[in-house]
Amino acid sequence: MMVRLPGVYRPQADTLMLAETIAQAAIPRGASVLDVGSGAGALSLAAARAGAARVLAVDVSRPAVVTTWVNAVLRGAPVRVRRGDALEAAADHRFDVILANPPYVPSRHQPPTRGRARAWDAGGDGRAMLDRVTALAPMLLTARGVILIVHSALCGVDRTLHQLRGGGLKASVVARRTEPFGPVMRGRIGFLERAGLIEAGQRHEELVVIRGDRTEPTA
């Protein structure tokens, strides 16, 4: 059972799906890992169980940072926690593995700068954070580094693959799962239909895990 402070994103199907992929990804023993937007810390703990020696978990939410820290301490996991923008906090480091379950729910409004909705709202096409991850994360990987990203297919699977490949990575979808809409998606069905992101009557989405591998030495 994980500790979770009020206001912290509860691990759901996307988090669990990525955690399962981590367990199957053959993370090298002693790997260094960056957890982008750690939430409750589920992915950081999954990386530690898979053999990571050092995990840097970063989240903009203070309650999320505290929650990740508590869960890591309770399990004796090698997780260091920082508050802030993960891609900026990690700019001077290189990682063997980067994990990302970024906000990806399309919204009528610009991504919020505070509150619980930061964990899911991601602008009109759901890619406000995704595009940053795919652009910057490849530069944070070691020579044989790996990135694992989970998001909804509504946000554009091909776009994510194209961007990662443009960053010099070999990229592919390694897991797919269809899930019913959660409360947030159900609450904006009308917007999603008008925006052409879902079909009339659609009440499910496909989640995907995309893996990108750096196959050439970094400069």
Topology of helices and strands:
Elements: H1 13-24, E1 32-36, H2 42-49, E2 54-59, H3 62-75, E3 79-83, H4 86-89, E4 95-100, H5 130-136, E5 141-152, H6 157-166, E6 169-180, H7 183-186, H8 189-194, E7 204-214
Helix pairs in contact: 1-2
Structure described in brief:
This protein is α/β, with parallel strands linked by helices. It contains 8 helices and 7 strands, in the order H-E-H-E-H-E-H-E-H-E-H-E-H-H-E.
Question: Radius of gyration over alpha carbons?
Answer: 16 Å
| Helix proportion | 25-40%
- CATH topology (fold) name: Rossmann fold
Form type: globular
Whole-number tally of structural domains: 1
In whole angstroms, the N-to-C terminal distance is: 43 Å
Strand content: 25-35%
Full CATH superfamily name: Vaccinia Virus protein VP39
Number of helices: 8
Number of strands: 7
Q: In the CATH hierarchy, what is the class? A: Alpha Beta
Q: How many strands, what sense, and barrel or not for the largest sheet?
A: 7 strands, mixed
Low-confidence stretches: none
Oligomeric state of the chains in view = single chain
Mean pLDDT: 93
Name given to the CATH architecture: 3-Layer(aba) Sandwich
